[in-house]
Amino acid sequence: MLLVDTNVWIDFFKGKKECQKLSELLISNEILIHPFVISELVIGGLKKEIQLKMEKMKQAEVVSEEKIRQFILKENLVGKGLGLVDIHLLASARLMPCQIWTFDSFLKTASNQIL
Fold this sequence. Notes:
mainly alpha, 3 strands, 56% helix, 7% strand
């Protein structure tokens, strides 16, 4: 399973070549979606019909805010250039377990170190 970050979805919807493999992974049901990623895409103008399809995909588990704060400290994620959604993706990926597909260098580095 692969948890896909918002920036990969955006490039996929733009038809960028580096995201073509996402179509194959979607067909083979190897993709997880995090609810926060859907929300970020909605903020960016995601069409309702696509949102509804994404909501039917296999969902990553959302980690409670209390556990997120513990995770930040335990994994030394302070000052690493990560946003809250990034940290939620990391915690969910650790819990599932799965890998994260992202183009964000900070998230990629953190993912390689703790997953």
